[in-house]
Amino acid sequence: MAELLVRNARIVYPATRGFVVDRGWLLAQDGVISGLAAGDVPVDVARLVAGRQEIDAAGMTLLPGLLNTHMHLYSMYSRGIGTGRVSHSFLDVLQDLWWRLDRSLLKDACWMSATFSGMDSLRSGTTTIVDHHASPSYIAGSLSTLSDALSKIGLRHVLSYEITDRNGIQGAVAGVDENTRFFDEVREKKGLASGMVGLHASFTVSDVTLTTLRERVGSRKVGYHVHVAEGAVDEEDSVEKYGKRIVTRLDDAGLLGPRSIAVHCVGIDASERELLAKSGTPVVVNTMSNMNNAVGLPAVREMLKAGIQVGIGTDGYTANMFEEFRNTLVGLRHRYEDPAGFWAEVQQAQIETNADIVSRCTGCTVGRLEEGAAADFILVDYASPTPLNSENAFGHMFFGMSADLVDTVVVNGNVAVKGHHVLGVNREDLERESRKVAKAVWEAFDRLS
């Protein structure tokens, strides 16, 4: 039995009904939290166990690992890239940058982007990502390539491939098959990987492809990870082509439900909110990306009022969930012109709803500090200059803690980051190799201009 014992930690679960233990301990056995409490480690727990790892937290703050419920690992290759174009709309952004970039990715680029973006996520305190992948020039096997890279660095992950018709019906079917193949590959394993079925957006997915998807998914109990109404073009296309709004179209296709994720939802209306609530489909908002693409921010207050669970992701804009949930708060306050609003809502979204979403995706309890939950947690080297208690813990997390202060990251009971360094990898060697791969990606990107 693999064991990890953490001593002398300030244990903080910063939920709306959370707790703070000023000095305590946590025991993980075979990847699961088997005990945690205040004070010294009890004698029966402290006994010597062969092979057990021990960490003296020396007063550092122990938090549940952060969760990113919408990510694009391959966006790493956009860092420093030039498109040679001026984008005037959201559709321009897709055509000028992202659809050229994803077509430029081959196996080595997929592996390297997963490794580096995964390392950035871990070092920022994120222990699980829900990724939405696209690489039209390398579809079959792409999710396994990502999973191999992420598993090697110790990051829990939920993967899907972006089904779309924009590369022809053959590419769309290949995307369907990659999703089902990977889902079947990992669902019986007790590793770090889980699968979903990904779709790009309604305006690039035909009814023929939706029918093929449902036929090939068959009886599998799988969730769907879908971009919904990120830009106005998506709703306009759905109404014009199909005579119905996007969420209605997804509902008619049988793609909604608690296991699914509706991403963005900037342009949905009240009737669509009602359908999402009725089906139990959560929405994941991505504030920094939405603001960067100038598409507006979703009607989160109305979503919550309708009974929709709202989580937080980054859309690949960053790997840093500390940045993202801060910007979610200030972005929503700006949208609604409400300087006192959304504190409890963002707290619940980041700490509780993201945990609910990931737990449904993975089939295990993730993002919680309780016995039986996955042993995914972080140690933050945070010196509290003011009192810290269960009522204000999220305030300390929001205003005082940051990715730079993350010292140790544990996923599935294994130490993945120590001293802010990802274990088991030579970062300098990887950087040199990644720059070579990036050069080839950018050259392919330029040829598509």
UniProtKB/TrEMBL annotation:
Amidohydrolase-related domain sequence ranges: 61-415
InterPro entries associated with the record: Amidohydro-rel (IPR006680), Metal-dep_hydrolase_composite (IPR011059), Metal_Hydrolase (IPR032466), MTA/SAH_deaminase (IPR050287)
Family annotation (Pfam families): Amidohydro_1
This protein's record includes keyword Calcium: no
GO molecular function annotations of the record: hydrolase activity, acting on carbon-nitrogen (but not peptide) bonds
UniProt key word Hydrolase: yes
Alphabetical keyword list: Hydrolase
NCBIfam families linked to this entry: PRK07203.1
Name recorded for this polypeptide: Putative aminohydrolase SsnA
Organism of derivation: Candidatus Cryosericum septentrionale
